[in-house]
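Standup, Tuesday
Yesterday: got the pipeline producing structure tokens again.
Today: sanity-check two examples.
Blockers: none.

Example 1:
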Amino acid sequence: MSHEGSTSEPHVDEQGSISHVEDRQDDHSQGSQTAEVSLQARQRRKIAQLEEKLVALESGRAIKEKQMNYYVSQGRAIRRIVTLFDTIEDLITENDRRYEVEDDAESSLDEDRLQIGFVTLTTALSWLPKKATEMDYDDYSHMLKLLRQGADSARGDDTSKLKALVAEWVNRELKPDPPVDADDKHSRGFTNDACGKLLCPAELDWNNPVVRAGIRDRSDGHIVTDLSFPAFLYDKYTANPNDLEEGLFKSRVLLQAYKAVFTSPSSAKDIEGDGDGIDVIQNNRRANKSVFRVKVKKHVAQIIKMKKVTPRSIAYIACQVRFALSSVTSWRSIDGDFDYEQFWRTIVDFFERAPGRTAQRRIDVLLEWWTRKVFGRNNRNDLTSTAKANMSVNALARQRAQRDDADFDSS
């Protein structure tokens, strides 16, 4: 018995020890599992938090990029219709200056030109003044930088577009031999007879061999500067020396370039007549959009809500055409003796600084001619309330109402 007892007790103790060890192992295993689950939960929460932050960052970045793209897109109008060379800061500074001086204080021609530029800018970008007052200086400076980026980008795009198109138009109209190379600008300028004819000062005759040689040699009396209107600005590329305003800014290549930039290159093919073709094109666009719900791509003039040709847009295109005809390969404000900035100012002042009422009427007629040629004769939106009231539909409605009132009063 004692032997059996002595042999059985160790067995029991051994089992108990093993049981305790297993319990401790189970507890440790469960603790490890709990810790692992807790760690995974914390990691999932961190991942979820990071994903939320990433979504927020991406959303913020998307909003910021959208805003940046908006400013760049809006800036594309500035060089085309506001100012080709002045900075936005110059325009704003001039407007601020006017608030600091007396109302009757005199201003220079350059200051007046800047102020008109500011008015044109805030008309085209009506949101700008309010936005500028809401921004801190850094955001404001960044916005101006993006607007300037868009402005210069648009000018570069137009320069590239017209490089090939102007060559095509000159070859088709003047048929030079050899033709103007669409890709090589070195063969343009006064070394090329066709380009030279269009760049020749209006007061000189390019057909005269002495004039051609003098211009190419830059001899006295034949130096080409911005003080001369180039022949390409004139109807049929010929000026009347006794009336230099006759035919000015009515040339075929100038009109083609304007339409290519503002209403698409394809529209530049339609420049004959008085704008009837443009009316048909616009009416077809409206019909396609309304009947077939086809999304029609907007041209530059539609994007910037431009319905009339303006003096500064003509000056812009004149500079672009002059550059396209020249042999200069990269955009610059000075080309030998020719100053593009002064050339732009001269054209702007021709339109905006008419010497009297008679001259202003001629300017108004010229701008109306341009608007018909570019945008057609659909002027429904320009009708005054008085004009609308006198039209037969409204007049008939008024007459019917008056008769009903008279019958009511007599009954």
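Example 2:
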Amino acid sequence: MELQRCLFYLLLQLSFFLLMFAANLAAANGVAAGGWNEIPDVLNNTHIQDLGKFAVIGFNNLTGSELSFYAVFEAQAQIVAGLNFGLVIQALDSDLPKMYKAYVWEKPWEGFKNLTSFEPVLS
């Protein structure tokens, strides 16, 4: 019984630590808890640009497409069980620039990233 109690408190402390880690990471990216928050200066934000590359590569792997990543031009973030990123990406499709909206779910403390959506932006 004592071992179960110790494990329960250890898991509770670990959960609290992970929640604080996610909140600190989000604050470093300028994200407040709750709704979607704009991320400033995305062209110079290497993490956001890397997420854009991840999204394009993931889309190519899923669909057999051959898009070439160019840049992320807009980004928003939302704190969830990790962070959701909404990205407006420009990629080249047969040398023609096209815009896409992608969503990437990330849990950085686990090294986890998942492409949840990738759609063309209608002009």
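Quick observation on example 2: Residues 55 and 61 are 10 Å apart (CA to CA). The mean pLDDT is 85.
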